[in-house]
Amino acid sequence: MNLATKYMYLYGAGGHSKVITDILNSLDIQVIGMFDDNPPNARFKGMEIRDGIRLMGLGFPELDAPLIISVGNNLRRAELARSIAAIYGTAIHGTAIISAKATVGAGTVILHGAIVQAGTTVGEHVLVNTAASIDHDNTIGDYAHISPHATLCGHVQVGEGTHIGAGAVVIPSIRIGRWCTVGAGAVVIRDIPDFATAVGNPAQVIKVREEPDFSSIYAPLDLSSTSQPLAANDRR
Fold first, then answer.
1. 104, β-bridge pairs
2. Active-site annotation holds for 136
3. Is 217 exposed, middle or buried, given 0-12, 13-18 or 19+ CB atoms closer than 10 A?
4. Active-site residue among 93, 112, 125, 136?
5. Per residue, what are the HEC states of 118-150?
6. Any idea what DSSP says for residue 71?
7. Average pLDDT of the chain?
8. What tens digit of pLDDT does each residue of 41-61 get?
9. Most buried of 14, 43, 106, 189 (most Cβ within 10 A)?
10. Best CA proximity match to 35, nearest among 169, 233, 234, 214
11. How far is 183 from 167, CA to CA, in rounded Å?
């Protein structure tokens, strides 16, 4: 996100959007529109919730400011990110410590007190939650979620779509596969395969799913030829 950006759209009007709105407001970035596939009847802090892409299809507007997907579910976030042709911003709270030698992908949200150390690459549309600690030379795949107070030591690899539970600890040089679930408070001392669920201290794999059905993750839509930019006077 360009640091000069003063406006942002959010997709998702649940509790996660409240947290992201607070972060953006603290950075003097104004949320000028919100979308949701199941819009609440009530307004969100005085803002009308606009229909999401599932309701509008190819009529979804070309946005005139960056978008953040404010949805906590990793698979749903991936689906939306691959469906909506938009410029994606980031939201990084001012209390987070991000090394100048770390890389943070588009659409990623980093909450209060989180730490990302040098040499780490955080992918796109990742959620790094409150006070999570990601040490040096980690690789965090797209759509992952690092929960509050989780600790990842150096040279850890976290695959696409994986959820690391609250307070979990991962020792150095561990590889955690794609679309895994690591339980809250787990202590991971061995590699975890793709699609596995691991819990406990030390963490044990309790099940490995078949590869999830990703058929709901659409190919990106080309909205430019089917919709018009959202004009300033159309902002809700």
1. 122
2. yes
3. middle
4. 136
5. CCCEECCCCEECCCCEECCCCEECCCCEECCCC
6. -
7. 86
8. 555 666 778 887 776 766 778
9. 106
10. 234
11. 9
